[in-house]
Design goal:
The chain is an all-alpha fold. Helices cover 20% and strands 0% of the residues. The longest helix has 16 residues. It is flat and about 120 Å long.
Length: 98
Amino acid sequence: MKGYIAVAAVMSALVLSACEQKQATAPPAPPPVIVTVPGPAGPQGATGTTGATGLPAEKGETGATGATGMTGAEGVKGDRGKQGGDTIVVVPTPAPQR
């Protein structure tokens, strides 16, 4: 029994050491970034001229406000309600609970 354990230990050591391991490699370096530096500012341009203002006639005139409408006539009054007579209220039986 001891011989089987010794053989199993030697075989497991051989099997585990026979596995191919990946070699650690460093990732490639990123490409260099090119940064352009702006030059000095150029001379300021000339000031522009002010535009012409429009005449009032070109804008159009607004119309006069209309008159307020008349109120409608009052409707006819309804008849007075009549006194109730014999009223029967029917209440349905409740549904049985399940």
